[in-house]
Design brief:
Elements lengths: L22 H19 L12 E6 L5 H12 L3 E5 L12 H9 L5 E6 L4 H6 L5 E7 L5 H15 L6 E5 L6 H12 L3 E5 L15 E3 L2 H5 L4 E4 L15 H8 L3 H4 L7 E3 L12 H4 L7 H20 L2 H8 L3
Helix pairs in contact: 1-5, 1-11, 2-11, 5-6, 5-11
The structure holds aspartic acid.
């Protein structure tokens, strides 16, 4: 399924964000991902597409699902995957991010999968190395593979992305997931709403091509997809809401608020979830409507497609030949 978009080659050296990708490129990434979904459900999940290739997961910020997902993706394609454990890394000894990248680069990896707490750090690092770099989340900037796995989940359930009404609720300000999803959904022709308290909206919200609501009942009205976001307290350096209890009352997803969305609306959350804060536990576990587990499953397929396309693409081979 291509969502009405013709396939195209993936002519990018790195995957640093969704912004800047074209509809055919996103279509290609989703189509390749789709081909891995079935493979991942078989007993024998292994391919040798990345045999001989080295993937380094370089995480400067904690992660469970994203790191595991990239690790599985690399291994299922037959690559060698190394996880950099930061507690024992040179970072603790005072080495800079760039020095670490250069050191790893000298070991000839084929892909660096990087997560960093600062927006823009992954791009900076990508300019210093001569392998492909995948952004696994940089600060509150972008998390492209999360948006792709969300898109794959939606496309498989709804058959399309264009024309859908998607509402993203919660801590948009600190969320790289929200930014990547807004870009992807806009590029693919969906309409995007945001629901958040004014204090949790980013200053650039007017330029994002979204409709803004502060009332959850109004924001959810007639929506096809309800995407919830975690309150990212680790990035908050001030008080952005009075109390968790009050936050849940106004912005937590429960059946009452959900009743405003379309009866077939899907419930999504990138995880990790704070049950009883941004989402009621019963709603999160309502597997007639909640696709939260499916999102995790699609994550592996999407990361396989990204690793494959970046490793085997002509743009990468060309850069390798010129040793840049
Ligand atoms: N796991 C997602 C991220 O890394 C969402 C979250 O942490 O709330 O951005």
């Amino acid at each position: 399924m291509t969502d009405g978009v013709a396939p195209a080659p993936f002519a990018h050296r790195h995957l640093l964000g969704i912004q800047g990708l074209s509809p055919p490129e996103i279509g290609l990434l989703l189509d390749r991902s789709e081909s891995y979904v079935e493979q991942n459900r078989r007993a024998d999940k292994k391919k040798s597409v990345l045999r001989g290739r080295t993937i380094i997961n370089l995480f400067f910020e904690a992660s469970t699902r994203t790191r595991t997902s990239f690790e599985l993706a690399g291994k299922r394609l037959g690559g060698d995957v190394i996880n950099m454990s930061l507690s024992t890394s040179a970072i603790k000894k005072g080495e800079t991010v760039m020095d670490t990248a250069m050191t790893l680069n000298a070991m000839h990896p084929d892909v660096l999968v990087v997560r960093h707490p600062e927006s823009g750090a992954v791009k900076l690092l990508s300019e210093q190395v001569n392998c492909a770099v995948v952004n696994a989340g940089d600060g509150s900037h972008e998390h492209p593979t999360q948006a792709l796995l969300d898109a794959l989940t939606i496309r498989r359930r709804k058959g399309r992305l264009s024309g859908l009404r998607v509402v993203i609720c919660g801590d948009v300000m600190h969320s790289r997931v929200a930014r990547s999803n807004i870009h992807l959904l806009n590029i693919m022709g969906a309409s995007v709403r945001l629901v958040a308290p004014a204090t949790l909206l980013p200053p650039e919200v007017e330029r994002l091509g979204v409709e803004v609501f502060h009332d959850m009942h109004a924001g959810l009205e007639g929506c096809d997809i309800v995407m919830m976001l975690r309150l990212q307290t680790e990035r908050m350096h001030a008080n952005f809401f009075p109390s968790v209890r009050e936050y849940f009352h106004f912005f937590g997803l429960d059946y009452d608020k959900l009743s405003r969305a379309n009866p077939e609306a899907l419930i999504m959350h990138p995880g990790p979830m704070n049950r009883g804060v941004e989402i009621d536990s019963v709603v999160a576990d309502d597997y007639g409507r909640s696709v939260i587990r499916e999102q995790v499953e699609m994550g592996v397929a999407v990361r396989m497609a990204c690793l494959e396309l970046l490793t085997l693409n002509p743009a990468a081979a060309d850069a390798d030949a010129r040793n840049i």
